[in-house]
Design goal:
alpha/beta, Rossmann fold, 54% helix
Amino acid sequence: MTEYRICTRCVMDTTDPEITFDENGVCNHCHTYDRLVREHIVEGEAGRRRLEKLLADIKRAGQGKQYDCIIGVSGGVDSTYVAYLVKQWGLRPLAIHLDNGWDSELAVKNIEETLKRLGIDLYTEVLDWEEFRDLQAAFLKASTPDSEIPTDHAIVAILGNMAAKLGIKYILIGNNVRTETHLPRVWSQGHFDWKYIREVHKRFGVRPLKTFPHFGFFTYYLRMITQKRIAILDYVNYSKKEALRILQDELGWRYYGGKHYESIYTRFYQGYILPVKFGFDKRRCHLSSLVCSGEITREQAFEELKIPTYSPSMQEEDREYVAKKLGFTDEEFNAIMTAPKKNYWDYPSYGQFMRQPVVQNLAPVVKKVMAWFK
């Protein structure tokens, strides 16, 4: 059994089985954070010029069209702040929201109120609930820590689909280096892997996926060439604390009590299923990135981790609600929680194909070709 260790800089620990430490006890995630900051964050005058060029490119590409960019909105801090910024910059965004049947009432209100105040048009894609319920249930039965992947995959698909339909080149997303870098691969992977999603559903689902938004291997790489997904928060001096203040003071936005807790399912999955079944507390990821960005201290992160993921009484309510909504009896849900743990590599996937030696040898050539098209 691996000896327990925790990073001397952040709060990531050996609950990530792939974590490594240098001679000073600093983990690989912190080193990745530093590298990504060097590669993607440009501050000062150079950063201002980089942002101005990007905004000019977006406006130029959108000339003559109703919208010049697409943004995804979940109702959370990052995506809502993206909406706020693009309006400040004079862009003409179309906001897209995925309704997978799990939005909290507060999330709906936050989205409607903030976009109304900003004057941004909203398109909501509503998933076929019976299909999606069957897919989510299949992932829980598969016993991997990846049950949020169907939602994440669908979001990327509908953003790309709408951009292609409207001829829009730029998709601005809320992902960012400063607050979302400490993400262990083992805790969740396969977000872009339709083969993995399809195979899990084939084994454990019962309904055909006729309408579920998805994209295959070649569509993914084609869109990497024809569309630009911009992590726009990396172009500004992003502070989650300051973003929270602005959203609350200027847009009437209200906090959910945790990252991604705008979704009832995500709240339950991250706050109950992951820590109870797999021993993964995703707060470690988010807090560690905030420690490295200087928004909080390591001591503050430790204090946060002492607090339950969320109210035990709400956990019990969510447990009953989620199980019932997904069609599980108490016995069936308990069986899921106690089933042997599996992971991404236990099922067929594009990832297994990408591991083949011939593909590995071609990878540098493909990267050069992709870079040429950018």
